[in-house]
Queue: 4 jobs
Job 1
Amino acid sequence: MPLQTKLFIDGEFVEAEDGSTITVLNPHDNSEITQVAQAQVADIDRAVAAAKRAFPAWRDMQAAERGRLLLRLADLVEDNAEELARIESLDTGHPIRDTTGLDVPRTAFTYRYFGGMADKVQGSVVPVEPGFLNYVTREPVGVVGQIIPWNFPLMFTSWKMGPALAAGNTVVIKPAQVTPLTALKIGELMAEAGFPPGVVNIVPASGRTAGQHLAEHPDVQKIAFTGSTSVGRKIVNYSAGNLKRVQLELGGKGANIVFDDAFLPGAINGSAFAIFHNQGQACIAGSRLLLHERIADEFLDGFLSLAGSIRLGNPLDPDTEMGPLTSTSQQKAVLSYCDITYQEGGEILIGGKRPDDPGLADGNYVEPTVVRAQPEDRVCQEEVFGPFVSVNTFSSDEEVIELANSTEYGLGGGLWSRDLSRAHKVAGAMRSGMVWVNCYKRVNPGSPFGGVGSSGYGREMGFEAMHEYTDAKSVWVNVDAQIPPYYPR
Ligand code: TAP
């Protein structure tokens, strides 16, 4: 499979100025896939300068024309779907059935949505005092820095670049070092689609050096970040120099509530998807199961037997339902929470270890894990970011609302109930940017995505995203220029 391995700056694939590279590993067995150029501070400066040069013409391009390029990119993503799916599976460990069925189609869908959106962002006219006209336009912010994580690298490039480009901004995007491959392939497709040089620059790099430099850069007017809450806090500090706009999509600890009137087969299946899809490496994962005490045993019977039957294996095998975690450090982090469960007096109901299969011994695999612990325990409060779900029980709506809202996070959460009134009431009471009722983890480019509290601020997707990537400009006109405006004497 041909892989792009160089930085994409100013429309060309180039080496890092000092020749640095990153070794990209296959999470299935930690063998080397390839070496990719690693941008340093000087390369970030080159990329930002290219984006700055490209900005005026891109901003002034007819919006429909910007949209046309994004629509062309969406088509190219579909034309290259098989290759993109394979690269993403190889690089991240997502099962090929998921990259083929979810990641790649959602990526094309997102570029297409924002391609269509480019010429739909309208301003407004404000009804002000007679004799004056006040209109409001939306202007692109300028050069935008975007830092993305390793859990959905392909899809997140579209979530970030789609609205930014549609709105007329130019972009410097830093993929995570562990998963740079599909972002670079997107660079190739953008060049093929005809995006002008410099409009998009793709720079795999270390977050701690080059990523920080991008977030501090005086010529970057906005930084959009997805990743851990701890790095999100640093990004806010880095932004202070030029007071750049900040958008943060951070961690989560999704409450997934199952009421005693839920349709249990659906709740069991949906709750397994909520936590085990992508090996639980999702900010919106349903990582806290809150079960009504009347159905807890019956639910757990079905849920544990489903968890125990999930087929772990090589992500490129079409039969694989769960792949490895994306890095050894993430595998270690998840296994450490199994130790913490015991230390805190909790109980591991299933999993809690690497699989016994010797064929998976060199990979970053962890078995689907379900633990019972106290709501205030670390395993019920901290983001584990793996196939690891805690279980608590409750007996009333009031109690479960309090439990659901008892962490610092507020990103996504779900509930399963056939009582319409209860579902709406509890959805309204959950302190969460997104709530799913009788489903989980639904996303669509038209629907705002983001959180509250330690899950960050700002919204991706939909009109909200277009507002995130534009500034309002208010223009006042004295309609009759012969009449001087009122001046008190
Ligand atoms: P982070 O360190 O937050 O990495 C996310 C991105 O930020 C990567 O591109 C990373 O670059 C970059 N980065 C790291 N330090 C930076 C800095 N000082 N300045 C600018 N950019 C910086 O996440 P992680 O360490 O990979 O994962 C740790 C935990 O974060 C996970 O266990 C999970 O809880 C959470 N996480 C959340 C999400 C979502 S979707 N909210 C995604 C990933 C991880 P590198 O290439 O150097 O890593």
Job 2
Amino acid sequence: MEYVADIIVNRPAKQLNRTFIYLLPKGQTRIARGTRVLIPLGTTKEEGIVLRTYVLQERPSYQLKRIQLILDPDKPWFTEEMLGTANRLSHYYLCTYSEALSLFTINKKKTKTYERPKEEWFSASPFCQVEQLPKRKRRQRELLAYLIEKGPQAKSTLLAAGFSRLVINQIRDCLGIIVSERYKDTTTRYSKQFDEGIPLTQEQAQVYEPIQEALNTHQYKPFLLYGVTGSGKTQVYMKAAAQCIRQDKIAIVLVPEIILTNQIVKRFVDHFGDQVVVFHSKITLAERYNNWERLRRKDSHIIIGARSAVFAPTDDIGLIVVDEEHDTSYKQEDMLRYHARQVALWRGEAHQCPVILGSATPSIESYYRAQEGFYTLLRLPHRIHQQPMPKVTLVDMKEELLYGNYSVFSGALVGLLRRTLEKQEQMIILLNRRGYYTFVLCRECGQTITCPHCDVSMVYHKEGAELKCHYCDYHEPVPKVCPHCGSKKIKFFGNGTQKVEEELRRQFPGARVARLDQDVAAHKGRSEDVLEGFSKHQYDILLGTQMVAKGHDFPDVTAVGIVTADSVLNIPLYTASERTFDLLTQCAGRAGRGNKPGQVVIQTYNPLHYAIITSKAQDYEAFYKEEIKVRQSLLYPPVQEMIHMIVRQPNEVKTNALAEKVTTDLLTYIKTWSNLGETIEVFGPYEETVKKVRDLYRMAITIRGSHDKIEKIKEYIYTSWIFTQEGIVIDVDPI
Ligand code: ADP
Ligand code: ZN
Ligand code: ZN
């Protein structure tokens, strides 16, 4: 009898999207489902995941290979729920099963068993006496006395207590000393115990009640917690997490990019101490395993982290929180394009637990679902400390031009800056373009200088006097003549953060200005330094891109200036208005968080656009009402569902041909449906906004339709040639 296993190869090749049969190691008759194993594949070794083991009835015609090593000897890494969620994810987001599974693993690829780090422990037998050592071995005597007094000790503890390696090694041979190995203790840096915390306000208690109900009855229930900033949402999450700990279940708390949100992380850690493990991209592999071990043994019950923490490999989830659920960083925009909020809902459903989506400016999608009754809407309309919302002034930049002001700053913004500096308070200035001049134009032939690899303008960076491409790594020295016509009349245009920084220094010579953008963040630790310096009021003005807009809580910031509200509004995405409203209200919300009132100036060329008007009033509901009308009339999500496909090829003609082929194929398939209706449409192929990136030409196809129809077309794509074709990116639910 031959015992075999059905195995998924953990390699993201679309051609490997099926199970393979392998013989079990000699003498084995069973391996638990979800266990990772090492298998030979072709000439290499790969990680595989066991789906089932059984007795082979009939030998296949080809030579079966054998599993080489079991990588999870104690307990399978994948639980039934993880396998199920990965399967759901693979069909929903149109990726392979192994791509979906690998999201749940900590390292990309495993080729040996992971051993928990061990360390030596020293203990003295009951009969040990200090006198058994000669007097001249003074340090060894001290160590022995220490062990007799304190009982068994880890080597690291002895080292920390001041005993040298040499002395510790010498005592090994001492009669009655027992050296054993134990798992290294996996304590986190924080040690405070958690207590009940502050009691909830009446408003919070009302909101918490249905959450508690779902926690206690172990029910899947999605909540949309819509509360202005400072209304006490975090406190509600903490209350729910405490209940989860009492139930001995795991709470997953998702936050947007971790550097911006360390405040909430800090609050959880301060309050819950060792109960919290923090996941982010910068922790080491050992720390990741350590965290996972702690969760698995339930030494810790809360995992807090960015997007990927939603895949925490745990089998007993009692609560999932998605803080700032509208934040676009929850969507992974390269490789596998999943949305962490969606995965959170699936896992919550599988574990039968509440999922709290919290936001001051909910995504249109979530608010719509709440309106439709799919989520329970909970509101916290008042701030705990009653600070007023900041006062916002809109400036029409067309009028400024009319009055002869050609500078990037309006009179109102300069006025606000001056007053803020006089009062020795701080100001944040948002400008969504980095670099110095944002494009270079030839006055002779009218052409701009573009990247040779991408179809975008090169940006002048003062540092190194270079032109840089913001889509790839290409950079070149500033040309002396136009590369198109040879003319010397090349001119620089546009204001990037570097230029505005210079402008600020020129106009306000006494002010201390810090800049924060991707160029600064490229230097390790630099953005943390800037933020920390600003929070200590070592700078008066913080100027930067989106990075300055979100999450921060600086009590001395009383003023915010937004140089161009239109930069996001003009991007050709159906979510442009939503993103604008979100950016403006979030950024405005940085002002007046302490006990001094805040003031905001928003500069725009579109003062009549509803996204701008409603963000002036910081009126989310008014914005939602307008925006949902637009979505309804144009049948955009969340009213209908959407799939965006990008065909990318090194050759323009081939790109077009392939895109045509995809479109024709999809249309032909749709024609076979008996009940056609108007509920599905295929647009394209059309050129992507940026036609070429990194030497790949890009054509797009958009599919839009009702949920059922989209499901059906996904099923088709999953089994068609389109799925395995190289160079097609499929983006389900683009945002
Ligand atoms: P949000 O997450 O909605 O921005 P927070 O939970 O951070 O709101 O609360 C805002 C402020 O109010 C914080 O300083 C917090 O400590 C305080 N706070 C929250 N809940 C309470 C409460 N029940 N009693 C007293 N202070 C509270
Ligand atoms: Zn020219
Ligand atoms: Zn480029």
Job 3
Amino acid sequence: MQPSGEAHIGNYLGALRRWVEMQRTYECVFCIVDDHAVTAGGDPKELPAHVVDLAVSFLAVGLDPERSIIFVQSDVAEHTELAWLFNSVTPVGELERMTQFKDKARRFESVPAGILNYPVLQAADILLYRADAVPVGEDQRQHLELTREIARKWNATYGAYFPEPEALVGNEGRILGLDGEAKMSKSLGNTVPITAPPDDVWARVRTAVTDPQRVRRDDPGRPEVCNVHTLHKYFSAPAVVDDVAHRCRGALRGCVECKRILADSISATFAPMRERASELRAHPERVRGVLEDGAARAREVARETMKVVRERMGLDWRAAAR
Ligand code: ADP
């Protein structure tokens, strides 16, 4: 996940919640991808704090450094090295075909090569650990297909080594932001951060867009088209969800009150995580310890992989000088 600040409820519902569960059945590697974040051209002064914020979010939701490897991408230089080597088996045409590349490229007058090569670094992130499976959203399926192709091509050229990782596509779909229109996303400012204090949660949820046809309080509402109602389904108890729908349809409750209940449900859901996060923020050395330990464990696997990759690709000249 990219370090663009604290995780939000879309990240939680679409990714983190699942990752926490996956720790029961998989040996997991969770990486905060700051080398990727650089391609987005963010502020270098903010990046370190964003990395730590995301690490705090990871630990607060229950990613467990005892069970999983949690680390920062730029701590393991093998990611960028392997990406460079994968460039040699990656067709430019394939990269140009990627939907995300086409979307992003439109924003630039002169497209940086990093935007084009982004999925090659992703392939390195995955294959460096010889991963069997990757949890992805629908929008990342194409990039994972490319990772599989890179693995196939590399294997065909240099001998079978990398597995072709399977995409574990979640069924959550896109969580809409508080505007009720676009995907919830940090860059759009329509989010609720998972560790926001209750008054901040309320300040944000209060601005949420509801059924646009419900103009006055005594207009009956349509919960089925209201994003606030969708969010209730994730965070409120089933009886509350039924009750808010009933009162909405019957114009028995105004939208502000309905949002108040949602804000309370969100704050209650994340209360234990908020507490863990504030403890971690008070002890940054613990976060640092987790990330440094994670990087050391990641590096061990990465070095094993790179030893084989270098040998197979002829990057071991010492073999000829023995
Ligand atoms: P953001 O768009 O806020 O920067 P990212 O694109 O870094 O978030 O996404 C990180 C992870 O969270 C991805 O696995 C992505 O699928 C998931 N995710 C992000 N936003 C949403 C959303 N609105 N709904 C569902 N999942 C999301």
Job 4
Amino acid sequence: MSDAPTLPQFAAIVVAAGKGLRAGGELPKQFRKFRGKPLIRHSVEVLAAAGADPIEVVLAEGTRELAKEALAGLGGIEFVGGGTTRQESVANGLEALVPHSPKTVLIHDAARPDLPKEAIRRLLEALKDHPGAIPALPVVDSLAVAGDGDVMAGKADREALRRVQTPQAFRYTEILAAHRAWDGAKNAGDDAQVLTENGGNIALVQGDERLKKITVAEDFMTAHSAPFRVGQGFDVHRLVEGEELWLCGVQIPHDKGLSGHSDADVALHAITDAVLGAIGDGDIGTHFPPSDPQWAGARSAQFLEHAVKLAGEAGFALGNIDLTLICEAPKIGPHRAAMRTALGAMTGLEENAISIKATTTERLGFTGRGEGIAAQAIISLYASA
Ligand code: MG
């Protein structure tokens, strides 16, 4: 396998001068933690690793210390003061590059943390034939033109439209000249517009959905922790005569039943512990202590329902359940369908996301001797905020 060709030399400007109020929180959003590190650091790390040098980071007044901390240890970084508009901020970044006289420059937003290296490569490649190149994606939804009173006034042809992302790539001398020629009283949507109005053409290069801009608090909530979680649970109850046998909220006819403080539904206890484990919120004993008389004989369905509700409050929805019951008897197969239906009702999961398996232990150990039933469960959660 041959090494990928190295990228041509390029400089970068990362615009981080926004106040970021839409994303909520006290810090400007570009300095808030996103997947464990400041939002701005994600794309700057990629740019630095791709060879961008220098990287002009354009900052709002009073944020230099925050930026130094957020980007500590990265090479080739220079800080520039921002302007009152985005195009002024970019112009400041371009002027700061004058002593470096780079051939090409990538202009990026700090609020787009996922920056695939292939996107950088496609943009720089397109600059061989064009003075500018921007990542663009097709529009998949149909488009309506809003008229007075929010009434549909017409439709737009989505085939002719593209969604534009950053980074935008330019030959340096041409974008610098275009910015210097720009009428400062006019608001530019982006740097591609600045170049086209100065006569430069722009290549539309295949964009990437991962270049999504982080704009609202929900984006941070979703990304605050890993978007997926897993949890596992294990439980055992003793089989005794004179007790009812409940598994997954279904009563099973058998000559013995499970003993315990609640209805002793060993399957639901394992699943409940798995859900609580995935959100790091204790275990079934923490939330429903056996010492509390209100849980005597309780239906275990309410334990699982409560755990799913806690997961929802933590920003997660249940993805799937994989349960294994370990016993010699009763046979689980004849009751599997009813158990899946019951679990679906408790959790809101589709039945194809609920697996109930059963095994024996070849007559070995306490399950083999029929002294008890063991259950183990693995579940997944996904960020639902
Ligand atoms: Mg238990």
